[in-house]
Every structure is written in structure tokens, then in C-alpha cells.
Amino acid sequence: MVAMRGPSTSYELKRAVGHSVGYFWPFPHAQLYSEPKRLVELGLLDVIAEEHGRRKQTYTITEEGLSELRLWLGEPTTEQLQVRDVAELKLFFGELADAKDMLELAREQVRQHQQRIAVYEQMQLRFAGVPGVATRMVPLRLGLQLERAALQFWVEFEAENTG
Amino acid sequence: MVAMRGPSTSYELKRAVGHSVGYFWPFPHAQLYSEPKRLVELGLLDVIAEEHGRRKQTYTITEEGLSELRLWLGEPTTEQLQVRDVAELKLFFGELADAKDMLELAREQVRQHQQRIAVYEQMQLRFAGVPGVATRMVPLRLGLQLERAALQFWVEFEAENTG
DNA sequence: AATGGATCGTCTGTTTCAGACTATTGAGGA
DNA sequence: TCCTCAATAGTCTGAAACAGACGATCCATT
After folding, report:
1. A84–B82 C-beta distance less than 8 A
2. Are A64 and B62 in contact (CB under 8 A)?
3. In angstroms, rounded to a whole number, what is the distance separating the alpha carbons of residues A7 and A141?
4. Which end of chain B, N or C, is surrounded by fewer C-beta atoms within 10 Å?
């Protein structure tokens, strides 16, 4: 996260993460403050303490940090994709639920996924022309694909279960 | 989870969960032992202590538990779908990585998603004819759709970044 | 009798997480 | 000028989630 935009403060990271990774993999901002500290101790980040009488720490990645990062990028990825979706969880109990409830669930999911897709498409548009950002948009495309797949599923489900 | 199959032990749940929800939303089995206890205290489950000299607790859902469950199923679902995928995370740093590494990442992802899809399709086939299980297969379909979307993405990505 | 696999369950320590809480800064209006 | 409010910057706490080692037991084979 750090390296991509040059030196950053935790707050800046928080914002950057907020509308990128954070969209599909949210995590509490407090970690954006505690993690850098850990990484500094490991020698992977440096602090460029500045202005404002000690508040506002700016971090840069060190050479070592960068090579660690690249190492990680080159490692095989064994973890499976995880999907956490309480809607899907509810689906597991479909038999027990009111048909009405499941239908409402589907409708709501359709709404939410449509909305999310709209947001993603907005982002794509906004950054479409900007040079250099192109590669950063790649993960967004995956997110979009997944959202669309989910949307399609719920639309079908709704159709099947409608009167 | 409990209600769908009638009274169960934690171990049975562990297995059942293992090849259903657990596929896309894994969690440690220890919770399958601690949670029921909590739910018993809340009056949502009953213990049918049996045989084996006190080991092996069998749980049933109570009337109250069932109505709580139904209540939950009827509640609006506000949580967004979460996707945790370290491959996608790595993609965010694509600029910094070796092109080679990203290509290998893509290839590996293609492999993994194909394999996962195969497993899901197997499951679908196996339970295709079995009566009563039909509705239980619904969430699987969503999982399958998502996997296919991911696969498609990585295939495209690989194509774009090859030679 | 010994092995080993499936069953059954506990325990420990670490991470993650949600979200409340505190401060500071800077811009704009009364 | 002073006030207020939003944005910025960061800490803290307690609760859940998590990984994974560990301890038992049962049962079928060798």
C-alpha cells in the first residue's frame, strides 16, 4: 500500500485503502496505525517524522521493505479465495424460512449488488483516462466481475421464486 | 446449521459445515464446540446427553431457537459481501512486481479456480437426484458462479499479459 | 497386542475487529 | 474576533475470531 503512492501517513493510507482494497476486504482503521509501527521495528518502513509537533507520522518503505514485498509477490499463493456473505448463509436455511423472506432477501441483494456495481463503474470511468493508474484498476475489474456474478445469481433466484 | 439435519453433535456439524459453508467461509472447528454451549445457555439449543460416558454431546434446536433463527432469516441483511483474496491483494502491487511473477500468479489462480469449480460441479452431480436436498444446493450455485467469474478474470488477465 | 484412522473434544495464545474516545487543525460564518 | 464544524490524526479497550497443538476414545485390521 505504501510503496504505490510514495511516503504516506496512516491517515492517507486509511483513505487510500478505503476506496480500493477496503471495498471488498474491509478492516478497522486502527490497524493502519499499529501495523506501520510494527513494520518500522522490522526495518521494513522508515519514519519521516515531520511538522505538527510530533503528531502525524509519515512512513516510507525501506529498501529492505521493498525487497520483502517483492519476495512476497513472487511467493506462491496458497490461500483460497474466501467469500463472506451473510446473504449466502441465510440461503443455507432457505428451507426453514418464509418464502416471503427469501424473496425479500433476493430483492435486497439485487439492489445492493446493483449499487455496488454502479460505484465500481463510476470509479473505472473516473480513472479511465488517467495515465499510470491503469494497472491499479485491474483488481477493480475482478471485484466488478464478482459483483456481476452475484447480481446475476440473485436475479435468477428471484425470478425462480417469484409467483 | 443444526436444524437442517436434525439433532447433531459438534463433530457432525464440523463435517457438515466442512463441505458446505466451510468451502467459502472457513472457520476453526473449535468454535463448533464452544458455540453450541453458548447457545444452550441462551436457551436456543438443548443438550440430549447420551452414551459414551458423558463425551459426545448431541444438540437439538429448541422452539425458541427455531423462532430466533426464523427471525434472523427475516431481518434485513445489511452486511456487504466480503471477498478475501490474497491473489487480488497481490494484484494491487502489480506495478512493483516482476511481470513474470504476476503471470505465474495468474496461472496458479487459473489452476486453483478450475479445481475448485470441478469440486463444486462434482457436488452438484452427486446430489442432483437426491430429493429434498435441492434447496440445499442453491448456495452452491452462487459459489460456483463466483468461482467461474474469478476464473474468467484470471484467464483474461493471463492472456493480456502473455507475450 | 499393536497400529492407525476416524471420532470427539479442550486449551492456549495471538490477531482481528468494532467502535468509542481524544485531540488538533483549518476554513468559513456570526 | 470568536465559534463551530468538518476533516485530520491517533489511542484505547474489550470482545470475537482464529490457528493449531494437544489429549482422549473407539473401532476395525493386521
Report:
1. yes
2. no
3. 26
4. C
* Strand C close to B133 by CB, under 7 A: no
Cell of A37: 509501527
Same domain, yes or no, for A63 and A106?
no
The set of residues, in sequence order, having a beta carbon less than 8 Å from that of A47 and lying 6+ positions away, is A40, A57, A58, A59
Domain range for B155: 86-161
Which grid cell sits at A122?
Answer: 463510476
Contact between the CB of A54 and strand C at under 7 Å: no
ipTM tops the 0.85 cut: yes
Number of domains in chain A: 2
Angstrom distance, B11 CA to D24 C1' = 14
Banded model confidence at residue A1, pLDDT cuts 50, 70, 90: very low
- Among A53, A74, A95, the domain-final residue is A74
Backbone angles phi, psi at A83, to 5 degrees: -120, 120
Rounded Cα–Cα distance for residues B96 and A14 (Å): 21
| Same structural domain, B91 and B121 | yes
Q: What is the pLDDT of residues B36-94, one digit of tens each?
A: 999 998 999 998 876 655 577 889 999 999 999 999 999 999 899 999 999 999 999 99
